[in-house]
Amino acid sequence: MIDLYYWTTPNGHKITLFLEEAGLPYTIHPVDIGKGEQFQPDFLRISPNNRIPAIVDQHPKDGGAPISLFESGAILQYLAEKTGLFLSSDLRLRTQTLQWLYWQMGGLGPMAGQNHHFNVYAPEPIAYAIDRYVRETARLYGVLNKQLSGRDFITGDYSIADMACYPWIVPHERQGQDLNDFPNVKRWFERIAARPATQRAYALVQDINPVNAAHDEQARKILFGQDAKTVQ
User: Fold this and answer.
1) Has residue 74 been placed in a domain?
2) Backbone torsions φ then ψ of 154, nearest 5 degrees
């Protein structure tokens, strides 16, 4: 059994995509980040960076005590290694998949996240910041589009690299991107969206967070008012 500490963000969706694809039993523990639930001591013991997602694997592969993990990329890699799914054992394919997983973690996610912030959540528009992150997001879409040329998925077969990237492409309109400009990404995106496991994973939103509370003022203060004192 996997205990999943989750909210309905792109990083949260990565893990539900894997769990639904793999058929692993899991229990969701919602962590409403707009209400500050990520600062509860019980959660911080699992995720010291006060971010979702996090998991506790109650039955790890070695048969020992439960293992907790934070950081979505680390969780995807752990689950892939636990199950033997969505990460090839072939050295070259495995290396390529991990490269694209880390590309998402270090590039697509952070840049699209800043895009979201300045386009949607900032209290006032800052033209330079909006232009900077919309352009960088477009560059990254272009990189992904090139990689997907002649491929159904990022490294051939469906993998944790696809699960990492897909949720960050879902809000492409909010990022100022038109998928028609990236035909390989569009084809890939539609293929993943049609997967039953993807549809089950995203259906969870209606049960857990049907209204995006991150738009209210109190939630913005909690989400965007953090500094070093927050973690002391």
Assistant:
1) yes
2) -60, -40
Number of H helices, E strands in the chain: 10, 4
222 within some domain: no
The answer to pTM > 0.85 is yes
In a domain, 226, yes or no: no
State the pLDDT confidence band at 212, using cuts at 50, 70 and 90: low
Residue 152 lies in a domain: yes
Number of separate domains in the chain:
2
pLDDT at 95 over 90: yes
CB atoms within 10 A of CB 1: 11
* Cα-based torsion angle of the residue sequence 12, 68, 158, 196 in order, rounded to the nearest 10 degrees: -50
Instruction: Return the pLDDT at 222.
Output: 87
pLDDT at 22 over 60: yes
24 lies in the same domain as 66: yes
Adjacent-strand bridge partners of 56: 3, 68
With a cut of 80, say whether residue 213 has pLDDT above it.
Answer: no
214, pLDDT greater than 60: no
Q: Same domain for 116 and 46?
A: no
Mean pLDDT of the chain: 95
Domain encompassing residue 16: 2-85+208-214
Q: Helical H runs in the chain?
A: 10-22, 41-44, 72-83, 91-103, 109-116, 127-147, 160-169, 183-193, 196-208, 217-224
Say whether both 119 and 178 belong to one domain: yes
Same domain (yes/no): 109, 39? no
